Amino acid sequence: MFAYIVRRVLYAVPILIGVNLLTFALFFVVNTPDDMARMQLGTKRVTPGAIAKWKSERGYDKPLLWNASAAGAARLSETIFFEKSLRLFALDFGAAEDGRDIAREIRARVGPSFALALPVFLVGLALNISFALLLAFFRATYLDAVGVVLCVAMMSVSTLFYIIGGQYLVSKLWHLVPISGYAGGLDALRFLALPVIVGIVSGFGSSARLYRTLFLEEMSKDYVRTARAKGLAERIVMFRHVLRNAMIPILTGVVVVLPLLFFGSLITESFFGIPGLGSYTIDAIQAQDFAVVRSMVFIGSVLYIIALLATDLSYTLVDPRVRFE
Amino acid sequence: MPFKLVLLPTDLLLWLLVAAAIGYGAYCARRAHLAAPWARVFRAPAAVVSSVLLGCYLLVGLADSLHFRLRLERVSAEAQTAYSPEVLSVLDLALTRLRSSTERSYSAPLATRAFARELVELPDGTQRREYPRLRHGGAHLEDDSRWAADVARRCGAGLALGAALWLLVVWGMRPLPRQLPGVPWRAAQITLGLLLLLAGPVAALAAAYHVLGTDKVGQDVLLLSLKSVRTSLAIGTLTTLVMLPFGIVFGVVAGYFKGWVDDLIQYVYTTLNSIPGVLLIAAAVLMMQVYIDSHPELFPTAAQRADLRLLFLCIILGVTSWTGLTRLLRGEALKLSTLEYVQAAQAFGVSRTRILSRHLVPNVMHIVVISVALDFSTLVLTEAVLSYIGVGVDPATVSFGTMINGARLEMSREPIVWWSLSAAFVFMFALVLSANLLADAVRDGFDPRIQVGPG
User: Fold this and answer.
1) Contacts of residue A158 in chain B, CB cutoff 8 Å?
2) What ipTM does the predicted assembly reach?
3) In contact, B105 and B218? CB cutoff 8 Å
4) Measured between beta carbons, which residues in chain B are less than 8 angstroms from residue A152?
5) Is there a contact between B403 and B383 (Cβ–Cβ < 8 Å)?
6) Could A301 and B428 be called an inter-chain contact, meaning their C-beta atoms sit closer than 8 Å?
7) How confident is the model at residue B451 (pLDDT cuts 50, 70, 90)?
8) Could you tell me the pTM of the whole model?
9) No. of H helices and E strands in chain B?
10) Could you tell me the sign of the dihedral formed by the alpha carbons of A226, A229, A231, A235, in that order?
11) pLDDT by residue (tens digit) across A95-136?
């Protein structure tokens, strides 16, 4: 077990290096820092002096990979690759375009992101599973058919409409909660209520339908028939046998999103003005702040790799048939 | 010729795709084992209904994919023939009235007067704030109190036209049930009938009114909605076109060769996968924007720039989204490569490329078809989100995303401007819903596990 975990963790290292090289290529090789400077300073005629100043302020004036003018180890370390890409491994993100420290900003924004994502995840999971179980219980009846159609219809609505519609109904028409914004402490509840509901509703259709399929698959297995043949009530078959066994694929499936909960949800946060990591990313994309986008790409990948690791481990913990090879 | 054809890159690809789809259809029709799953798909009424709807979207989208530049009037006899710099499509030509009849700003659906009060000078010299008449919407009415009667008359005429067309189509479809039995033709006819009964009045009213109102700059919302269809279709289909070669080749090769090839391909797709999708797309689009901005000489006209940006977006989406298909195909190829028929082929000395192309790829095609169908609706929804973030299509390209983005502040107006968002919602919902329903039917038809009973 221990050797397995170590091997999985070691496997994450080349992936992180790959992500790092890919982002480096995307951000510095495809377009040179000169292009970025022109973009930031406005596409009109810019003087070479202004570009040089912009680059030296941000440390983009060094060579990409190999600094021939330096001596010794500085030949490698006095480069853009070392300073901008490799430093990410030490969680040293540098400063954003407006001069603020990215790492500090991230620490301040993780809280609100998590406060929004966690209830969406937990309540959503409970609701989706209950609804799916209900449909599976009434399988091949009108209720099931209507439920599936409802799921497909809900899947077909863009998240944007859920957000806009929710804001219109709940905030504008019924004046129940503020349209957007955020406050610390208990006040956060008022601001988070609507985004949480919207988050749950927008994920409902696809998840509930998927879980229904998982339940039906489980119900077609032999042990379920045996349980029924023993004369067990359908209620007991559903809860004691089907639900418990179907939880294996469901839980191992959701483990993958757990670390990403810290990452927040891009669209919801930015619509509701919640100062989390998602809105930070969107703002950075819209302001074309490459330093922030680069950092967020890196953090997102780290979280995803942790998630993959956790998924693998959860398989081995939940299902004793899975062996470590 | 009074016009000059303009072949935009996405047009070319879309038409190639249509040709390929027709070719694939003809190929399947002559082979019973390939036609059987499609026959199963179209036995479901939901699949037929959604195909009819998708067919209408496709017609609109393809009409919007034939571009040309009209010839300008000659100034003098010896002057060279010049073509208008404006690139138009067949759909634009058909909707010339909607294109030319822009108002000053917002107006409600079917309105005759503007949405906001303006200062108007009366004939006697005094000034008054009132809702001015629109320049085009209902401009033929001397007195807008006769509005209701006029709308009713046009609706009636449109309904009659729609019904007549429907009868004609139903009459034309008579031999079909005998040629292709098993398809629920009645469902198709009812869907077509409802669509025609809806389209008739809309067309009749559009001749004199803005059926879905106008947006902030006075453009007809119906026109915008119809123009958005092409963008959605292009994103939904061209992305798949980009994705398929990567997905199929990498997946099958990894599953068949195993060993270090498999390790390498797994490494590449895990790496790509581990970057959050939206961020990877955003980073790539940002880089593309920088590139376009720093190389303006490559993009002579705005239409070409917008079109290339759409194409780039499809390519970026395709390059970042092949990983899921690859994983599925790798698993399937791993399974298939241990089967006897592949081992027999190896024992006979069949070359590797031939085993891949003749024995593996055809047997994983059902997974490809299913995932193409499932991906389409996801891509249409993704486009809207990306355009909202600002990393989607060019702001000059009409798409559902740009429509929503432009209209999202209208809900906070008092009284609210609901028609732009509602139009985008309805058009998008119908497209995605029918794509989802068709994808479900395709999955049921192609999934070998679900084949129950005599198939």
Assistant:
1) 381, 384-385, 400, 404, 425, 428, 432
2) 0.86
3) yes
4) 433, 436-437, 440
5) no
6) no
7) low
8) 0.90
9) 18, 5
10) positive
11) 777 778 888 989 989 988 988 999 999 999 999 999 999 999
